[in-house]
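Researcher: Structure for this, please.
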Amino acid sequence: MKELLEFIIKNILGKTAKFEIDEVDDGSMVTLTVKTKDEDGGMIIGKQGKIIKAIRNILRIKAVLEKKKVILLVNPQIQP
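Model: Predicted structure, token format:
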């Protein structure tokens, strides 16, 4: 799941952007936290949250196939 999210974010931000993804797997639930700069966090969220909703939907599809739940958090205040 982390690899899929990393692929999506690299294509949104570009190859040179710095970000960090933390993955916590609690058996049936996966929590993914993206840590990046303020301006990059805005690009991930998008206008009215449309981009982050689309990313969550893609991750939800993969989670259903793996019979898990997924939570995606974007925390732009923490610098990697």
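Researcher: Any notable elements?
Model: The mean pLDDT is 90. Helices lie at 2-13, 38-45, 50-65.
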